[in-house]
Structures are given as C-alpha cells and as structure tokens.
Write a structure and sequence with these properties.
binds uridine-5'-diphosphate; 354 residues; 13 strands; Rossmann fold; alpha/beta; 15 helices; 6-stranded parallel beta sheet; single chain; 2 domains
C-alpha cells in the first residue's frame, strides 16, 4: 500500500484534486491524506469546491494565508514538514505553480520523501511571474514529473532533464478529466444569464499589481460590453483593488466567484472567454470556445499555434481589435491534452515507480 500526501491550497488545485483524488479513492493500492495549506480560504474560493465536487475533507488545514510570498511559503514549509514527519508518506503530490506547490515539494524532498509534480514542465519563460519561479523549482526537485502536454516534456528536455535522476511521464491534462466528469453535473448560477455573453476572469498578479495594465484591461472589457454582455466572476484580490479606484466597470456584470459546476454551466453557454487564468484558457478549448488571453505570454502555446487562443496582453486597443477582427479556428476536433484519462495514468505511474 502506497501512502500519498497530497498538498493543495488554491482554487485550481481543488479542481485538479477533485478529478485525481476521486480516482485515488477507488484504488486499493493508494492511501491518500490531504493537506490544505489554507492559501485560498473564502467559502467561494475553497469550501464550495469541496462541497460541490465531493473532494475528500482535508486531514489537515494549515490556515496560512494573506501573507507576503516569503512569510507564506516559509510558514507552509514549517507546518508541512511537521506533518510529514508524523505521517511519513511514501510520496507527496503537488499541483501546478503556487506557494503551496513549492513549499510542499521542498518540505518533502529534504525529508527524502518522493515528490510527484502534476502539471510539470510548463513554462511561460517570464521569470517575473511568481508562478514561473515556483514551477521551475518544483520541477527540479521532483521524482516524477507528470507533464500535461508534449510541449511540457520538450521544455524539460531542453533544460537537460534527461540527465537528471527523475521520471518524466506524459500523463495528459488532469483538468480535462475534471471538465469531462463535472460538465455532466453543471449547475445554473444564481444570476440570470443573457442569451449571448463573454465569460471573463482576471486575477494574475502581473495584472492586479500593475494599475496601468489593470486599467487598460477593464477599459477594453467595459467598451466591448457596450455591445456584448461580459460576465466576470471576480477573484477577491481583483475585487479589492478595483473597489476604491476609478476603473471603468459600469457595463460589466461583475459577480462573486462561483463554484466549478456554475463555471462549467457558463463555459457551456458563453460565446467566448477572456482571461488571464491558466486553467480557463484550456477550459475554453475543452468547451469549444475561442479565448483571448489577457497576458503577454502563455504556457499553453498549442492553443496559440492552433489559433484557438490569441494573446492580447493588457493593451486596450489590442484587446478590442482582437475581439472585433480576429478569426479564430473553430474546428476543435483535435486532441491537445490527452483523452481525459490523466488520473488513471498518474495513478498507474505512481504505483509502477513506488
Ligand atoms: N473558476 C471557478 N470559479 C470562478 C473562476 C474560476 O471555478 O469564479 C475555475 C476555472 O473554471 C478553472 C480554475 O478556477 O478551473 C482556474 O483557476 P484560477 O484562474 O484561479 O487559476 P489559474 O488556472 O490561473 O492557476
């Protein structure tokens, strides 16, 4: 029996864990404990996902949030280490690129506990992003690197990972598993949805921490919303910043963040996605919707290469121009992220390499 400690803390990690932990629970060879760092803690940023998606209740909740990067990561490192010393798992599993990811990986590795990284190998090549730093460092100390795409495998090989003692496994994308499973359980959000709308989210530090970028984005969306409704389930970080400023939002439908089942409902019905989220760019593709990315680069370059997604950055004119004039590829019948069986692949590899 393998003892696995999964470390999660942020919204996208709950969604990924919902897909993987459900499959782990069905497997008799793995016993999973879940450590929630508390990085996201609001009801609509955390509890709702555990409730709606039936994610097993965390064995530990560290309640670490609202701190600067150093303090947050440091406190997580300390607390996770204490738990790992008591629990002595064979493996820890971390997702993506947050402070919870790097803290979990580092705590485990120093205790000689094997590290599995789901969503390994992604690169934006922008070292100003906290996410890029977290993912590069986590990859480097992981024992199994579960890559969602061929691009991710290639990134690792370009960095010389074939000379590093680790296993690279192309697992497919766990978010596709989640999208397939939970789209059957979609739930109508509380607001009345217009017939035609764009679904947008904005939360990345590179936008929220830069007033000019954030202002250009909101001005562009506000202008587009004169013609087409834009619904924005707004991240608390962004909501806090725009609350007392003069950002243009009067034409936008800004709502509280929603659960994944409501998100899937809107993804199924929207005409387009505009976002700076990593996960949502892929979900636009899973749900066959074009996407405008409100960042200067993306890790999901296969979406760009196939013209399902356009990078518009935080440039007002470029965002409006892309919306008005760009002809997106509408033939979504191409397999970019595996076959929705990432969870099985990950579990099989963990058992094989234990
Ligand atoms: N999401 C959600 N409710 C919302 C906004 C986003 O459930 O109100 C989901 C979204 O569908 C995707 C995930 O959260 O599955 C993306 O997380 P986020 O954008 O916070 O992080 P990123 O993917 O950029 O790391």
């Amino acid at each position: 029996m393998i003892k696995l400690a999964t470390i999660i803390g942020a919204r996208p990690q709950f969604i990924k864990a919902a897909a993987l932990s459900r499959k782990i629970a069905e497997n008799n060879n793995i016993n999973e404990i879940i450590i929630h760092t508390g990085q996201h803690f609001d009801t609509n940023m955390s509890d709702i996902f555990f409730d709606e998606m039936n994610i097993p209740k965390p064995n530990y909740n560290l309640n670490i949030n609202g701190l600067n990067h150093g303090a947050m990561t440091g406190q997580m490192l300390q607390k996770i280490e204490e738990i790992l010393i008591i629990e002595k798992p064979d493996w820890i599993l971390v997702y993506g690129d947050t402070n919870s990811t790097i803290a979990g990986a580092l705590a485990a590795k120093k205790l000689h506990i094997k590290v599995a990284h789901v969503e390994a190998g992604l690169r934006s090549f922008n070292m100003d992003m906290p996410e890029e730093i977290n993912r590069i460092l986590t990859d480097r100390i992981s024992d199994i690197l579960f890559c969602p795409t061929y691009t991710a495998v290639k990134n690792l090989l370009n960095e010389g990972y074939d000379n590093i003692k680790c296993k690279i496994a192309k697992s497919g994308d766990i978010m596709q598993d989640a999208a397939i499973f939970y789209s059957k359980k979609e739930q109508k959000p509380k607001i009345n949805l217009p017939k035609e709308f764009i679904l947008a989210t904005i939360h990345r530090a590179e936008n929220t921490d830069n007033k000019k970028r954030l202002s250009e984005i909101f001005t562009a969306l506000n202008q587009i919303a004169k013609e087409t409704n834009i619904i924005i389930p707004l991240h608390p970080r962004t909501a806090k910043i725009i609350k007392n400023s003069e950002f243009q939002t009067q034409n936008l439908t800004i709502i509280e963040p929603v659960g994944y089942l409501e998100m899937v409902y809107m993804l199924n019905r929207c005409k387009m996605v505009m976002t700076d989220s990593g996960g949502l760019q892929k979900e636009a593709f899973f749900f066959k919707k074009p996407c405008i990315t409100l960042r200067n680069e993306t890790e999901w370059i296969e979406l760009i290469k196939n013209n399902f997604n356009q990078i518009a950055g935080a440039d007002k004119n470029k965002i409006i121009n892309t919306y008005k004039n760009h002809k997106f590829n509408t033939n979504f019948n191409i397999n970019l992220y595996g076959n929705g069986k990432a969870a099985e692949n990950i579990i099989n590899q963990l058992i094989k390499y234990n």
